[in-house]
Amino acid sequence: MPTKDPNKSYIAILGWSLRCIDALEKFDRRYVIVAPKWAEDYATQHNIPFVSWDFERLNDRSHELATTLKDMGVDVSIPLFEETVEWAGAVNSVLMDNPRLLGQAMLFRDKSLMKRRAQLGGIRVGIFEEAMDQSDVIRFLKRVNQTLLKLDGDPNDPIHFKAFDKAGCLGHRVIRSPDDVAAIADDEFPALLESHLDGWEFAVEAWIKDRKIQFLNISEYVTLGYSVFVPATPELEKWRGKITEQIEKLIEVFDIDFGFIHPEYFVTNDGTMYFGEVAYRPPGFNAFELMERAYGFNAYQALVLSFDPKATQEELDAFFPTPVKDALGHAGCFGVYPRRRVVSELRIPEETENDPYFEFHELAAPMESKVTKRTAFGTHWGLVYFFGEDPHRLRDLLKAQEELDFYL
Amino acid sequence: MTMTSDSSSIQPILRSFDHVLGQLAGASSAAKFSYQGRVLDAAKRVLKQQGGLAALEDRAAALDRAGIFDGTDWAKPSGLVPGMVANALKSPEPRIVVLETLNLLRFLAVVRGAHAQPGLPVEHAHHFLTQVLALNLDRILGAHHEAARLSAHELTPAVDALLQRLLDGVGTEGILGRLVEEVWRILRQRPIQVGHVKSMILQIAIALGQQGQSFSASANRLGADRLISALFGPTDLCREDPGLDAYVARLAHADTGSLQAEASGMARAMHDTGLVSEYHAAYLRYILDSGQGHFLPDALGLSSTGLDCLRCYQPLVQQLIDVAVHPGTAQAVLGISLMLERGILYSPPIAPSLWRLLGTPLSPACEEGLAAAFGSDVTPHQRLVAGLLTLLGQPLGIGQGNNPTCQAARALSIWALNDPDYLLWLLAQVTANDRIVMYFEGAALDSALLPAGLALHTPLDADAVSVLLVPHLDRIYAEMGRRVADRGEDPHRWINPELHGWWVGREFHIAVDIMTGKLQDYDQFIRDFHLAYHPLHNGNEPVIHPQPAGIAVTDSQGTFVGWHAITIIRVALDQSGDMRVYFFNPNNDSGQDWGLGIVVSTHGNGERLGEASLPFGQFASRLYIFHNDGLHTPVSVPVEDEKITAIRDMAQHSWARDRV
After folding, report:
1. Residue A54's pLDDT is what?
2. How confident is the model at residue A230 (pLDDT cuts 50, 70, 90)?
3. Which of A153, A232, A256, B465 has CB atoms 3.0–4.6 Å from A220's, for a disulfide?
4. CA distance B295 to B266
């Protein structure tokens, strides 16, 4: 393990992630993990610098966290999870004496606000609206379909229903009929409603320093909520130029000096980009791990560099590879949901296990036999990882996993 | 099965494997375990390929260094038990199978000199693998029984290939020989439970049947034959294992000379090995049923002491045989024989107590418990009588099984040895009332009303007497502990005399301070132990009653493992003139390596059957609790300082390393 360089920044990580801790153990920055009390024993056992903090408490104590970290000499805090994004904004506004950072973080935390801000900045977004209750949803569904000149009885075009402040696919539902609306619980409101775009959905991971994109990755979704791989196929990569322009717009509109963003877009057949949403934290689906596999650089260390006020441009240039060209291959993963109502064991399908692209899985054995009915996109039971040279073969392989039973 | 995949298909899998292995190797200690699962999964896929085993063998050292075993039960190779391997390799959880496979490959790498592990010397690795092979002979020889076939899984061919590879690496040389030696070593301790020994002998018999020629030259052939014949054909009339019915038919046609030869042949095999053949049980039943009881003394192999005892109590003994000796409980024959030799029937309450046992039906709970542990070949009552006779004949043969109840097993052993009358009284309480009432400092403790102690379940892998008594004793022991918990001193100071009997010394010595766990007045402790127990220092006073004592058990590296209850039986000079402590260890196998040259002996240094022994100083260096009767020694000889220093060094280099 390298020694810590006292001339480099002292980093606070908000959230508990072993992968991130592992990356920092192997990095030359001093660091401290800020995470809930339940992680404290493990941290003590393994000599991990630790500050216990309850992120669910009200925000009026954020100043206390900021002062604690400031007294320790911490230079910047980095959020790992959606729930810690505004904490990091609040803390950094104190550490860096820049109140604007808190406002910016609040923007990232509210899907509706961020969409309006994007729209105001001239970024193309789909039709969207806030919903306070079920009747709002039904009205939106009807109006969108009227706009599309559908008659009564024609199958509706779906709309998307997303919780304001949840990460990724949590709380994301696809609504096709008033029946679907009836299934939404009252506590899921308020929420964001979006029209459905028939396009190619993808995500971008961008590390930003001094308002400049340091590294831009395009993650190709095979099926939303199931599978993703990096780098993308040449067909999607050919839009890289346009995508870069879009990200530069985002940097302007959201006034991003540094850090890491993870926006989602649609590109329609004619090459029009629609902005979906943006998060100011590492993506789900372990995309960081995929990037490490594909490029060989540690994405968490990259995250630290992009936040670190003392990181130099030379250091960043030396750290990042050239996108696509430097990739060793394509890495993808598939999120498994049980396909049966009752399951008793985990069994990796033969065709998966024997495929040369298959690498390993992180699936848990079933804890109970009855599978809870999936509302919204739900949470997968674990990921299966693949790696190989041919992006098209990888894409088809990921698609094929959807038809296999991992839980019997 | 996918073993047939051609060799080119292993390349991408190996690439993945090497990638995740690299991740594991580079991971910090905090994240190590999060990479282990993926490495095991990748290893499993490699194993299933042609050439996969060899690829993993090449990487065995790298895997070990990368930390694949960190935080698992396999982390310390020196502490691994060969007997656990077979089960791990049969586990339904593939990651366990793979981990055990990698572990064995690690041992193989050490044997081949391709890997060096601190704490795993080459000889140890070699010995370990030999034992593993010996214990898995059936699998190596392909003598799979139906149960094994049914439990086969996708890794079964890979595991078979692994064992074959180990066999090539270690050599067939000496495997059977080791197994035979191992069986003899265990049998010399005369354990009450011999089920696992019998299954090892069965393995030997199968192996000899298949590989007879290559083994015939070996010096162990005779030892193996003795074991096999003692179980399956101890005498002329059953030499070729004809089956019990055929044997009894032959007895019916045998002349007096043959019957006499059968009697002495049976007894010889029994006392030679400690194993009783089922034919022996059939023989005893036959001669008693046919009115030929005059063969009994020879069939039991009695000396003049035993014979005299038998003559005094003939009707009782015959009744005990009738109830207890059946083909499924043949070991009771040895118990009866040794019990007669001990002469304990002359103690006035014993014979009536045995009559009481013969005449009392068991409570339903007792019947249920015995049936659950032993099945229903014979009735629970017959099983209990057989078990009791075995315990009375072999008080030092009892083992705690795989249960944390060394205290209870030790107590049963002490009573069987020193106070059999009391043991029978405890048993009578349980068989009649499902409870034991003991008194602790005047207050009655009723086991039926107490919460569970250390053992969460009734022990099923122990002998019949333990199955009935241990749950009650364990609860009483735990309750006594609770009652003295706040006294700030080691609870055994009070528990030991109250639990076992008045003859446990009330003067209590302990080597460590309970609050800090540090050594306390250790030199004086050692000095006191000499003055209390060493005949050359205590005025040549022998150990009068067996005394409970506590030892700090260490592993073969001398690292502290835990506190353990034993019994000091006697202290005496061995045949080479060294003073030794002879003691009983309720652990199932006393022959243990406690590290730094301290190896507990069970045979060849003057031990009686079931005793373990160590030179006085070595024993003292692992001792941490003992009792003394408080009588003043008339002429005590002071202990030389060098002796004390040597013992203190041995303690401080092992269990007391961090207690100074």
Report:
1. 85
2. very high
3. A232
4. 11
DSSP string, B229-279: HHHH--SGGGTT---HHHHHHHHHT--HHHHHHHHHHHHHHHHHHS---HH
Residues of B in contact with A384 (CB under 8 A): none
CB contact under 8 A, A19 and B29: no
Is the Cβ–Cβ distance between B59 and B13 less than 8 Å? no
Q: Please state which CATH number belongs to domain A10-108.
A: 3.40.50.720
Q: List pLDDT tens digits, range A235-279.
A: 889 889 989 999 999 999 998 999 999 998 888 777 788 888 888
Radius of gyration of chain B (CA): 27
Q: Which H or E run contains B139? A: helix B137-140
- Is B30 in Cβ contact with A46 (below 8 Å)? yes
Q: A23 vs A28, B30, B31, B142, B654, CA distance in Å?
A: 10, 11, 9, 48, 38
Q: Is A149 on the interface with B (CB under 8 A)?
A: no
Chain A CB contacts of B13 under 8 Å are 356
**CA B98 to CA A203: how far, in whole Å?**
38
Burial class (CB in 10 A: 0-12, 13-18, 19+), B287: buried
Instruction: Note the pLDDT tens digit of each residue in B165-199.
Output: 888 788 766 677 777 887 888 899 999 988 878 87
CA separation for the pair B480, B144 (Å, rounded): 49
Quick one: average pLDDT of A342-367?
A: 84
Query: Which member of A48, A358, A360 has the closest CB to residue B30?
Result: A48
With an 8 Å Cβ cutoff, is A48 touching chain B? yes
State whether A26 and B13 contact (CB < 8 Å).
Answer: no
Class of domain A128-195: alpha beta
The Cα–Cα gap between A93 and B83 comes to 62
Q: Which residue has the tokens 């040279």?
A: A389
Q: pLDDT digits over B199-242, tens only?
A: 778 878 877 776 654 554 455 677 888 899 999 999 999 999 99
CA distance A315 to chain B (A): 22
Q: Where are the domains of chain A?
A: 10-108, 128-195, 201-327, 332-401
User: B29 to chain A: nearest residue by CA?
Assistant: A46
A42 inside 8 A of chain B by CB: yes
Buried b (16+ CB within 10 A) or exposed e, B252-286: eebeeebbebbbebbbebbeebbbbbbbbbbbbbb
> What topology does CATH give the domain A201-327?
D-amino Acid Aminotransferase; Chain A, domain 1 (3.30.470)
Q: Which of A163-172, A270-279, B283-292 has the lowest mean pLDDT?
A: A163-172
A330 interface with B at CB cutoff 8 Å: no
Residue B310 has pLDDT above 60, yes or no: yes
Flag if A359 and B42 touch (Cβ within 8 Å). yes
DSSP-derived pairing of the beta strands B560-573 and B579-584: antiparallel
**CB-based contact A360 B12, cutoff 8 Å:** no
- Pairwise CB contact (< 8 Å): B28 & A25: yes
Eight-state DSSP code of residue B9: G
